[in-house]
Amino acid sequence: MKRQLSIDIVRGIVMIIMALDHVRDLMHIDSITQSPTDLATTSPLLFFTRWITHLCAPIFVFLAGTSVYLSLQTKNDIAYKRQLLIKRGFWLIFLEFTIVNFGLFFDIGFHTLLFEVIAAIGFGFFILGLLLKIRPKTLGITGLIIIFCHNLLPLIPFAESSVVKAVLSPFFSPIVVPFGERAFVMGYPPIPWLGIMMVGFATGKFFERAQETRKRLFLKIGLLALSLFGALRFINIYGDPALWSTQKDVVFTFLSFMNVTKYPPSLLFCLVTLGIMFLLLAFAEEFQSNTKKVTLIYGKVPLFYFVVHFYVIHILTLIMLFAQGFNWPQFEFSSGTFGRPKGAESGLPLGTIYLIWICVVVILYKPCQWFGKYKAENQHWWLKYI
């Protein structure tokens, strides 16, 4: 099956948006001390600067599952594909704890081992590799059950000291496990994200249909997901641990309504983000040619972009700190503040964050274009893992 442009276009869009979140994380003046979704301290612009980036991880994970399905149709050798997926899964987890973690923190002591989206995809690849003989429809239904039901887990009355709770918690909920001077942080509990990947895998079958048929189907799915999100959120009983409430004005009440939970990805979080994804997939190939050209450059090399963009942003963060009068001995890398000194004001206002974000995306255009061409023209074994 030929490569699906709509997948690369949508993936490219979310990769571009993702850089905004990480520039804000590392360089915004309030990112170390305040949450952009805390309604007591945020502004509407800051809130939506963070909220729009909620699209990135679920779409990235979903389309990773879809790409696995489509690659199976290209090479219908389950044994080969299983071996490749399992190897790639382990590779991505290793990559997360080494190159990605270092790019994020610049901490040579690796005081924080952070399990995030790359490791979650690696875990998903490993599990998919083991389950490839199961029908895609069955995997998709299993994924939907996980998405719709994993929010019920906290309601199960496990004893606090229960061995079952201790074993299950890291797979379903964020957790911090200190060991000595270091800590393991489960930022992306793998089971909820596995559910998203499974549904993405099953959805790959829809790409076998004609473009117009697929467009109508994706439009219906997207609108259904968004309608279900609106209905469940309005009822305010189930679907997200953070209930919405009336705020000081209509704008902040709307922010409360949209303030869904990413860690772990709640049902409502999945409905709204993946609903938007289906709408993007429906219309992606009708975007203007320049938009398609730019987004395809990033969407065809997502892992390369993901790794390199952290290093570019972090180098810019260090340049910012030097420009603001700090010197190297003041930088703090082991505390999880990306080098920014604790107790001292540093960082940039939100308007400047947007300018730097655009610069980062522009800087990465040519490297991504080069690597995409290199990958297309070469068959080296290691390119299968990047």
Summarize the helices and strands and which ones pair or pack:
Blueprint lengths: L4 H23 L16 H8 L4 H19 L3 H28 L6 E4 L1 H14 L5 H14 L13 H10 L2 E5 L2 E5 L3 H14 L7 H25 L14 H9 L8 H17 L5 H11 L2 H22 L26 H28 L9
Parallel strand pairs: 1-3
Antiparallel strand pairs: 2-3
Helix pairs in contact: 1-3, 1-11, 1-12, 1-13, 1-14, 3-5, 3-8, 3-11, 4-5, 4-13, 5-8, 6-8, 9-11, 13-14
Structural notes for this entry:
The chain has 386 residues and is mainly alpha-helical. The protein is built from 14 helices and 3 strands. The longest helix has 28 residues. The protein is globular and about 60 Å long. It starts with a helix and ends in a 9-residue tail after the last helix. 39% of the residues are buried.
Low-confidence runs of at least 5 consecutive residues: none
What is the 3D shape? Answer: globular
Cα distance, first to last residue? 21 Å
Beta-strand portion reads under 5%
In sequence order, what are the helices and strands, one letter per element? HHHHEHHHEEHHHHHHH
| Structure classification | mainly alpha
Radius of gyration: 21 Å
**Care to count the β-strands?**
3
Report on the biggest sheet: 3 strands, mixed
Give the neighbour order of strands across the main sheet: 1-3-2
Overall pLDDT level: 92
Helix percentage range: 55-70%
The tally of helices reads: 14
